[in-house]
Amino acid sequence: MKFYNKVEKFVEESCTKGMIKHLKRTAYWIKQLKSNADEALLIAAVSHDMERAFRKKDAPEILRATKFGFRDREFLKYHQEEGARIVGELLEKIGADAKLILRVKMLISKHELGGNDDQNILKDADSISFFENNMKRFLIRTDVSKTMIKEKFEWMYDRITSSKAKRIVEKWYNEAINELENLD
Q1: Biggest distance spanned by C-alpha atoms of the chain
Q2: Averaged pLDDT for residues 21-41
Q3: Cα torsion at 18, 6, 101, 79 (round to 10°)?
Q4: 39-47 helix and 117-129 helix, angle to the nearest 10 degrees
Q5: Which of 72, 128, 149, 168 has the fewest CB atoms nearer than 10 Å to its CB?
Q6: Residue 128 belongs to a domain with what CATH number?
Q7: What angle do CA 44, 173, 37 make, to 5 degrees?
Q8: Could you report the per-residue pLDDT of 129-158, keeping only the tens digit for each?
């Protein structure tokens, strides 16, 4: 764990409190889903959404044009690749070797849609942490419709690959849908 603590410190210095909690809990859930997770997977977990912390006003039009980019392939591609680039540059700056950098970038670059086993674990841990930490914030949003919020909840639940992660999230997902349906 030579570089994990340095990346976590970077996250703490760069992100909002809510985002820090989400990212740290994603790393926690990685350990629950894969007890022998390597440093690269844990680094990817604690930093997978760094694009959001550094999103620029002049970001591509797709980021300004959509209220939710969670299903838009162009948005997802940008979000994943930009996050991988940011974390890759950080790892290079702090002296990580090329093998670690490439693995972390590969993981972050597919954290929304998954791919191989470890990319799927990262995606699943991200969904678990979303329901654990971000669900309530979505329920009080007034800038988007209930339909869009429901679509977000369904997407975050449906993208989960492992049955273990589904079991962990199921209660939170059902609670989110119930609360959403009972909103005025």
Answers
A1: 53
A2: 97
A3: 20
A4: 40
A5: 72
A6: 1.10.3210.10
A7: 25
A8: 999 988 888 777 777 778 888 888 999 999
Q: What is the pLDDT of residues 78-104, one digit of tens each?
A: 889 999 999 999 999 999 999 999 999
Neighbour-count burial for 42-54, b at 16+ CB within 10 Å, e otherwise:
bbbbbbbbbbbbe
3-class SS string, the chain: CCCHHHHHHHHHHHCCHHHHHHHHHHHHHHHHHCCCCCHHHHHHHHHCCHHHHCCCCCCCHHHHHCCCCCCCHHHHHHHHHHHHHHHHHHHHHCCCCHHHHHHHHHHHCCCCCCCCHHHHHHHHHHHHHHHHHHHHHHHCCCCCCHHHHHHHHHHHHHCCCCHHHHHHHHHHHHHHHHHHHCCC
Q: Is 77 left (phi over 0), alpha (psi -120 to 50) or beta?
A: alpha
> How many domains does the chain divide into?
1
Contact of 54 with 14, CB cutoff 8 Å:
yes
Q: Rounded distance, CA 61 to CA 13, Å?
A: 27
Query: How far are the Cα atoms of 9, 34, 146 from residue 119, in angstroms, in the given order?
Result: 23, 12, 30
What is the residue type of 110?
K
